[in-house]
């Protein structure tokens, strides 16, 4: 749980760091007024390093959270879970067909055609 909270915090910090940075080129560079509104005059090395550090920490925290969660599955309704397990066991043992069989209705021949 703590990994998820740290990942969310790092994500918000990356968003803020990217918004503060001065665009170097592209369409956003044409809007000079946006830089003056944000109060940014030039991109510093600190912001770039901070952005990369937060991006790497998000990736590492995501991997740690995945490993920490393990292979556990959520079983919300135990009755449904038990029914599903019973059906799976019957299918594996051959008591039930793997695919339910449906009856195809016969084509009706009109009385006039005879």
Q: Which helices and strands occur, and which strands form pairs?
A:
Blueprint: H1 2-20, H2 32-38, H3 45-69, H4 78-93
Mind explaining what this structure looks like?
The protein has helices spanning 2-20, 32-38, 45-69, 78-93. By secondary structure, the chain is mainly α. It has one domain (2-93). α1 runs antiparallel to α3. It is elongated.
Largest sheet: none
Our measurement of the CA-to-CA distance between the termini, rounded to an integer number of angstroms, reads: 74 Å
Share in helix: 55-70%
Query: How would the global form be characterised?
Result: elongated
Give the low-confidence spans: 35-41
Total number of domains: 1
Kindly provide the radius of gyration, computed on alpha-carbon positions and rounded to a whole number of angstroms. Answer: 30 Å
Count of helical regions:
4
Q: Which structural class matches the secondary elements?
A: mainly alpha
Mean pLDDT: 74
According to DSSP, the number of beta strands is: 0
Percent of residues in β-strands = under 5%
Query: Could you spell the SSE succession in H and E letters?
Result: HHHH
Descriptive terms for the model:
114 residues, mainly alpha, 4 helices, elongated
Write a brief caption for the model.
By secondary structure, the protein is mainly α. The chain is 59% helix and 0% strand.
């Amino acid at each position: 749980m703590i990994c998820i909270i740290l990942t969310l915090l790092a994500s918000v910090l990356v968003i803020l760091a990217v918004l503060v940075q001065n665009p170097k080129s592209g369409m956003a560079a044409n809007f000079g007024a946006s830089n003056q509104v944000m109060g940014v005059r030039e991109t510093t090395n600190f912001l770039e390093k901070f952005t990369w550090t937060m991006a790497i920490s998000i990736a590492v925290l995501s991997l740690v959270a995945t490993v920490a969660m393990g292979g556990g599955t959520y079983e919300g309704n135990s009755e449904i879970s038990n029914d599903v397990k019973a059906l799976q066991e019957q299918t594996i043992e051959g008591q039930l067909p793997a695919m339910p069989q449906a009856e195809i209705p016969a084509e009706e021949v009109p009385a006039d055609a005879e």
